[in-house]
Amino acid sequence: PLSWDDIEQTLTDQYSIEQQRAHLIAKLSAGNLRRALKLLEDALEEKRTRVVDILRNVLKGDLDRLMMVEELVKRDDKKVIQEYLELMLLWFRDVMIIAEGGDRAMLVNLDQVETLERFQQSFEKINYHEIVERIEQALERIRRHVYVNLIMINLFYFLKNQLRRKHG
To answer: Of 96, 21, 89, 98, nearest to 51 (Cα)?
Structure first.
C-alpha cells in the first residue's frame, strides 16, 4: 500500500484535487490509488452527511430505528452500506482522537472538527474501542452474507445503548 501522503500528493498534483478533499480520500483509500480514484467519482460528501444523519437517527426510538434500517436496506445495496459503516468507523476514530486529546492532524474528517467536538461533548463517557469493534464485526458479517437487516438492527441498538446524552 502507498502512504496517505503519497496518495494525497498524487491527487493534488496530478488530478488538481483540493488539499482537504485529497487528504480525506487518501485516508479512505487504505493505501490503494485505484480506490482513491474511484472515491473521486463517488458521492463521498453525500455519504458522509448520510452517516451523521444515521447516527442522529440511532438515538431516536425503537420504531424510528427499525424504519431507518428498512429504508437503508431497501435504498442501498450491501456495498453502499459497507461504505457507510467504514465512514462510521472513521467518524468514531476521529471522535476518540478528540476525546483523548490526540493529534488533530490525524483526523480524517478534518473539515468537520466542530461537529466532531459537539458530538463528543454531548455524550457521557463512550467506549470507543467497543464501538469500533462492533462496527468491524458488522462489516465482517456483511462480507459473510449474514442478513443485513439483522446486522444493522443489532448494531444500531448497541449504539443507542452506548450513546447516552449528558444531562444539563
So the answer is: 89
